[in-house]
Design goal:
The chain has 5 helices and 10 strands, in the order ββββββαααββββαα. It is of the alpha+beta class. Strands 1-2-5-6-10-9-8-7 form an 8-stranded antiparallel beta sheet. A two-stranded antiparallel sheet has the order 3-4. The model has no long low-confidence stretch (mean pLDDT 90).
C-alpha cells in the first residue's frame, strides 16, 4: 500500500493546527482495493481521509474517513453559521482576553440546536492558547476523536473545503503513484 499525506491547511490562530489529506492506494491484496477490474471495466474506489488537529500523539485530533467527508463539510458549514448567529449569547464577555462560555446558553444550544450527523457532533467551545488568551471555537466530537478549533480557523477550513474536491485530488495522487 502506498500513502501520501498532504497538508491542506495550517492554523492561523492555532499555529499547531493542521488539516491533513491522506491518500492510500490499496492493492489487490487489501480487502477493498483502490482499483478493481471486472468484465473489462475499471472501478476506482475513493481512498482518502482527513485528519484535523494538532501533531500526532495530541489528544486534540479528529479523523474523518472518506465515507464521512461530505457529511463533515456540510456539518461544519452549518455549525459555523449557527454558532455565529448565537455568538454573543454564548460568549457574553468575548471582548475580554479571558472569558467564559455561558453554561446555561451552551446547555440549551446543545439540546436544541447542535447538529449531529454520521457519528459527528459540533458544539461551541472556548479555545485557549498557550498565553491563556481565549477565542470562540468549535468542538468536533466523532467516533474517531475530539478536536477543539478556534472559530477563525474553522471559517478558513470551511472556505478551503468548499472549493476542494477530494475525489479529483485523489485521482491526481493515484496518477502520481502510477498504476502497478
Amino acid at each position: 500500500m502506498n500513502k501520501i499525506n498532504h497538508t491542506l491547511y495550517r492554523g492561523s490562530v492555532n499555529k499547531q493546527l493542521r488539516v491533513m489529506y491522506q491518500y492510500q492506494k490499496k492493492t489487490s491484496v487489501d480487502k477493498f482495493p483502490t482499483i478493481k477490474e471486472y468484465n473489462g471495466t475499471t472501478y476506482i474506489e475513493p481512498s482518502f481521509s482527513l485528519t484535523i488537529g494538532e501533531p500526532y500523539g495530541s489528544p486534540n485530533r479528529v479523523f474523518i474517513p472518506g465515507s464521512g467527508y461530505f457529511h463533515f463539510t456540510l456539518l461544519l458549514h452549518k455549525s459555523i453559521k449557527l454558532i455565529q448567529q448565537h455568538l454573543l449569547e454564548l460568549f457574553p464577555d468575548m471582548a475580554k482576553s479571558e472569558f467564559e462560555i455561558d453554561s446555561m446558553v451552551l446547555e440549551r444550544f446543545i439540546t436544541e440546536k447542535a447538529m449531529h450527523v454520521n457519528g459527528m457532533t459540533m458544539i461551541p467551545c472556548k479555545w485557549v492558547n498557550e498565553t491563556n488568551e481565549c477565542f470562540p471555537g468549535i468542538q468536533i466530537n466523532s467516533l474517531h476523536g475530539t478536536c477543539r478549533i478556534p472559530m477563525e480557523d474553522c471559517m478558513a477550513i470551511d472556505k478551503m473545503l468548499s472549493t476542494f474536491d477530494p475525489n479529483m485530488f485523489g485521482l491526481l495522487m493515484l496518477q502520481m503513484m502510477g498504476n502497478d
